[in-house]
Amino acid sequence: MRTRRRPFSAQRTTDMGGGVWSVPVPIPGNPLGYTLVYAVESPGGPVLVDAGWNHEDAWTALRDGLAAAGVDVREVRGVVVTHYHPDHAGLAGRVREESGAWIAMHEADAALVRLIRSMPDGSHGDFQAEMMRRAGAEADADEVRRFERPDPPAQPDRELRDGDLVDLPGRALRVVWTPGHTPGHVCLHLEGADRLFTGDHILPGITPHIGLYPYDRQDIDPLGDFIASLKRVADLGTAQALPAHEWAFAGIAARAAEIRAHHEDKLLRLRELMTECADRPLTIWQVAERMTWNRPWSELIAVQRGMAAGEAAAHLRTLESQGAVRREPGAPGDPVRFITTSH
């Protein structure tokens, strides 16, 4: 039976057994509430799985939460980041400053961190606005400029690949590459303990955001990658999932099947929507406006609409790879438009 997500104020550092501790770290101003950072003990010092958001309140929670587990943050050996998002990688750099710890991340996300850190100040808003215009947005493209981007995460010292063992003396913590939520998202299999740190790949009560950025890319299929990654972790047969949000749970294969069914249903409904609009091609923005979200489109702010458009683009890209929709030719600079291939 699933339990309700508890607020951060109700969270505590928890001994998960077997030399693994769960430390809740708040995400200020975010409905997710907190990230679960895990400390894994070893004879060579503890290794953290993720680190939390880069904020003073989050740092205090991490430091004090580790202390409650008997870990001095200055003793941390390393931080392995499941993916580059700020609620996971944000404090990794500060942990490194305090302890001299290494930071490890999959090579695909490490490349994104390099790209983000190389962007001039203020250019991120311009990039977002241009991307939204190419999707067919109008007023929202200018509105998104006023939202500040979080500081980029620290560049990792070590880059991981699928199947690598994390530097954790006396224990086997193996990288399982699970692209989709980000290109370099990884789960971490604690072999011999029948546990899987799932990051955002599989969560017990919600599904991760799967978006395509820029929206009109044709060289990748993040939703297709995500669905394939769900099968990979389901096949591990691991008894316990230790996710980055919500709560630990058993039955990874069953939860993976639920998430896959969710996206297959969403793809089916999108095919139906595109068939209903078969007389005219639609921009990505027009498709997003017609899809179902957790709130009406009119109530979403510009950033939320941008994320919805990213998810719509990812689902359109999967349908395109399946031959169910195609792009209509247009003039240079025009927003990309899709139309069904069904007749």
Automatic annotation (TrEMBL):
In terms of InterPro entries, this protein maps to: Metallo-B-lactamas, NDM-1-like, RibonucZ/Hydroxyglut_hydro, WH-like_DNA-bd_sf
Source organism per UniProt: Sphaerisporangium dianthi
This chain belongs to the protein called: MBL fold metallo-hydrolase
One Pfam family it belongs to: Lactamase_B
Q: Which CDD domains match?
A: TTHA1429-like_MBL-fold (cd07725)
Q: Which residues form the Metallo-beta-lactamase domain?
A: 34-245
Q: Which domain of life does the UniProt lineage start with?
A: Bacteria
- The segment annotated Disordered runs over 138-162
